[in-house]
From TrEMBL:
Keyword terms, alphabetized: Endoplasmic reticulum, ER-Golgi transport, Golgi apparatus, Membrane, Transmembrane, Transmembrane helix, Transport
UniProt function note: Plays a role in transport between endoplasmic reticulum and Golgi.
Cell compartment(s), UniProt: Endoplasmic reticulum membrane; Endoplasmic reticulum-Golgi intermediate compartment membrane; Golgi apparatus membrane
Protein name: Endoplasmic reticulum-Golgi intermediate compartment protein
Highest taxon of source: Eukaryota
Membrane recorded as keyword: yes
Organism name: Takifugu rubripes
BP-aspect Gene Ontology terms: endoplasmic reticulum to Golgi vesicle-mediated transport; retrograde vesicle-mediated transport, Golgi to endoplasmic reticulum
Taxonomic classification: Eukaryota, Metazoa, Chordata, Craniata, Vertebrata
Topological type in the membrane: Multi-pass membrane protein
């Protein structure tokens, strides 16, 4: 009984076989089929190779959500060189809540104007920019950066970082050191002569949040030369909180966009203001989440099977259609030849019958005369 049950089960399984094997004696190999097979295998190999590169590649997915972190501090990373002595200028931050942030995290480093001149064209990206900088360097820097033999340190490099409240604010560098004030803050600018004002500057680096390697900020390498002593430079910055999550780095930082303008201060002409460098920043309420993604292995295998199966089926269908059309055309030609041969054979048969009947008629006449 068990053997019969096993035989029935095997028979049932054989009947459900969706891939029956055809005997080799029933299979006919042709040159056209071999050519199509070579083309199909070549396409499979090329597309599978390209699909492997797609599998290895990664891409960035961008998502947006509301930034709910308002209690943390915002870090400002600064590296700016100004064409004035360090004792004449001061840098600080005043936020929207009228809270002044002390510049304890910033360092004032006296540098020479020669150092500024040498690195002035470091960030130039085009030939026109280099020519303009060379012209301005010869014409303006010779007058603005006075090179005395006794004192050679005419510029000041301000670098370091500050922690501020996560609200809109104003980071500025102007004349005089900052002092606290009941209504905000003030700078001791009365002791500095107007002739020594020169806010020509170079921004080596300015970023917000964690300083990550490889991130280029828009203002890095910006260079400005003021032709007048009373000049104001303004940068309007919009900060976007960014959460970065890649296979190498996972951090929270900030990106920013910037627009800028500068003008000479002339109270008689109606251009009012305070000489200096002002960076007014605002924080966007939306956060950008950047996630590095990779194709999963199962998706790669599914796509690979689709490529192989699709090419195999498509080439088989094309080969079958072309073969069918060739057979139809060839059969029509053969039918035309066959018809011509049939007509010729009919004419020959009628002709032979005529001559046979004539021969029989002549023989009958001969017998009659005899």
């Amino acid at each position: 009984m068990r053997r019969l049950t096993k035989k029935k089960a095997l028979t049932l399984v054989k009947e459900l076989d969706a891939f029956p094997k055809v005997p080799e004696s029933y299979v006919e190999s042709t040159a056209s089929g071999g050519t199509v097979s070579l083309i199909a295998f070549s396409l499979m190999a090329i597309l599978a190779f390209l699909e492997f590169f797609v599998y290895r590649d990664t891409w960035m997915k961008y998502e947006y959500e509301v930034d709910k972190d308002f209690g943390s501090k915002l870090r400002i990373n600064v590296d700016i060189t100004v064409a004035m002595r360090c004792q004449y200028i001061g840098a600080d931050v005043l936020d929207l809540a009228e809270t002044m942030v002390a510049s304890d995290g910033l360092k004032y480093e006296p540098v020479s104007n020669i150092h500024i001149h040498c690195s002035f064209t470091l960030y130039s990206s085009t030939l026109l920019h280099i020519i303009v900088i060379a012209f301005l360097t010869v014409k303006s820097f010779t007058s603005n950066f006075r090179d005395d033999s006794s004192t050679s340190l005419h510029a000041c490099r301000i670098h370091g970082h500050l922690y501020v409240n996560k609200v809109a604010g104003n980071f500025h560098i102007t004349v005089g050191k900052s002092i606290p004030h009941p209504r905000g803050h003030a700078h001791l600018a009365a002791l500095v002569s107007h002739d020594s004002y020169n806010f020509s500057h170079r921004i080596d680096h300015l970023s917000f949040g964690e300083d990550l390697p490889g991130i280029i900020s828009p203002l890095d390498g910006t260079e400005k030369v003021s032709a007048d002593s009373n000049h104001i430079f303004q940068y309007f910055i919009t900060i976007v909180p960014t959460k970065l999550n890649t296979y190498r780095v996972s951090a929270e930082t900030h990106q920013y966009s910037v627009t800028e303008q500068d003008r000479a201060i002339n109270h008689a002409a109606g251009s009012h203001g305070v000489s200096g460098i002002f960076m007014k920043y605002d924080i966007n309420s939306l956060m950008v989440k950047v996630t590095e993604q990779h194709m999963p292995l199962w998706q790669f295998l599914v796509r690979l099977c689709g490529i192989i199966g699709g090419i195999f089926s498509t080439t088989g269908m094309i080969h079958g259609i072309v073969g069918f059309l060739v057979d139809v055309i060839c059969c029509r030609l053969k039918m035309g030849v066959y018809r011509q041969l049939k007509v010729n054979n009919t004419q020959l048969t009628l002709h032979s019958k005529y001559w046979i009947s004539m021969g029989i008629y002549e023989r009958a006449n001969l017998y009659r005369f005899q």
